[in-house]
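Researcher: Please translate sequence to structure tokens.
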Amino acid sequence: MAINLSPILKDSIAIAIDSSKITVKKFSETLQNKYVGNEFNYDTAEGQAENFLVRILKWFFDGLERVFGVHIDPELYGIFEKIIYFTLIGIALYFIVRLLAGKQATSFFSKKSKEIATLQYEEENIEKIDLDKLIQQALSEKNYRLAIRYMYLKTLKELSKNQLIEWNFEKTNSDYYHEIKIPTVKENFKKVSYLYEYIWYGEFPIEQPEFTNAKQVFDHLTHNISNNG
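Model: Translation complete:
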């Protein structure tokens, strides 16, 4: 049998009305400047999710902020992190290559260093080098690019001997071009310089036919130099 409690509850419950004054509070306009720093950066991992590198970066940038008041933007923080990752990967790849290649890698870098040293010596001492001999040696080895290089150095040597330029190994082809006063020599030197830069610095592979065509341009300039135009 159900008992109706409504009359009892109605008489026993008193409804209280809060008449206290309400004070409206607002957020400070400088609130966002108050909570800055890496400890309030929720874009980075925290706790166990952070690896060793992230913890080091956080410690470093927190130190900068405490000592110098320098705040690192989260985006810039992420860029620094990526740079370090790529650097570490590059170092790791280098040691892997060294480990796998062994002496071959060492000899490769050593060979490159010797080639650079040889080329620099040749450029600095063209007046003391038998360039004709080097040209013939390069041709006997069918190294036409190297032959073009020696032919160009020989051209500079001839220009200097005929006092059409003042040779210095630190000068550029453009420097020599502006020194030449004879129009025909100047124009042919421009063609020779273009061929040399395209074939040698552009590492453009050439064979006998291309070398023969290039040699004609060099020979024409040599003739101009010998006759001073």
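Researcher: Any highlights?
Model: Residues 95 and 101 are 10 Å apart (CA to CA).
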